[in-house]
């Protein structure tokens, strides 16, 4: 999904980024009970009129009836430019990072010829028990990232920025205060907690609901409890898939513009 250089100091490690997680969410489509037709998602204005994609623009809400209209050109002018370098700017101790900052995780695997530099960074971070902090751009969005060793691979975890974390002082009025706890209560609670302390083994925690839903779906499918969805033949069909396809076309168009050759910059003396 991304190929580039992982850089620390003057060392550049060619890597490929791959997902470290997979979603197990089960999604359903909405159907009409009478004939199991697929429900369409249409975009309509406040007057109820359907609005084609060409007539839709972005607006940032200032108040109940005031918006600032933002064009694609406005966003393009300040959009961060895609980079092929993830440059580690700092190394910090692993225990200093609040786990609330972690978001999505990816593996960085070495490209051909990068094994030695990759192994050097992996082992050095492991022995120092440190995490590399970097910023990079992926799909026109800037990310803060933590680069850390996990088992025998370098893991990149995208992180939330500081202003995206809800500080506890913002909810302090909802938290208990001046609660008196007796020594007996504390001792019993600590005894219970100690009796449950064990080594963390993620494999023993399974998504039981996901398994039950999939088993139910498979059972219905095997027993031919399925329905056919009528084919939509209307000339103008706007649903979620159409919106996604339009979005992808827009992204590809923007990417092709960025790949267009640019005039070389004049070298300064």
UniProtKB/TrEMBL annotation:
One of its GO terms (molecular function) is double-stranded DNA binding. Gene3D superfamilies: 2.40.290.10. Pfam families: Ku. Keywords: DNA damage, DNA recombination, DNA repair, DNA-binding. Residues 48-176 form the Ku domain. CDD domains: KU_like. One of its GO terms (biological process) is double-strand break repair via nonhomologous end joining. Belongs to the prokaryotic Ku family. It comes from the Bacteria. With LigD forms a non-homologous end joining (NHEJ) DNA repair enzyme, which repairs dsDNA breaks with reduced fidelity. Binds linear dsDNA with 5'- and 3'- overhangs but not closed circular dsDNA nor ssDNA. Recruits and stimulates the ligase activity of LigD. It comes from Pelosinus fermentans B4. Homodimer. Interacts with LigD. This is Non-homologous end joining protein Ku.
